[in-house]
Design goal:
With 66 residues, the chain is mainly α.
């Protein structure tokens, strides 16, 4: 029994290796998606700031014309 456990501990587990590779690939894909979404978020935040400033200018102009 002990000998069988020792042999099993030293053996490579192909199923585990395949699962590890799949998980590593999944993690890499998720990291790539995260980077893409972070870039998109930053771009949207910059666009939002520009639109806020434009709206403030428009509001000031409307108030001056009252």
């Amino acid at each position: 029994m002990d000998q069988a456990m020792e042999q099993q501990a030293g053996m490579s587990h192909p199923r585990k290796n395949i699962l590890d590779m799949a998980m590593n690939n999944e993690i890499a894909i998720l990291h790539k998606q995260l980077r893409t979404l972070q870039i998109e978020k930053e771009e949207l935040q910059q666009e939002n700031e520009k639109l806020k400033k434009a709206l403030e200018r428009k509001n000031r102009e409307l108030l001056r014309n009252l």
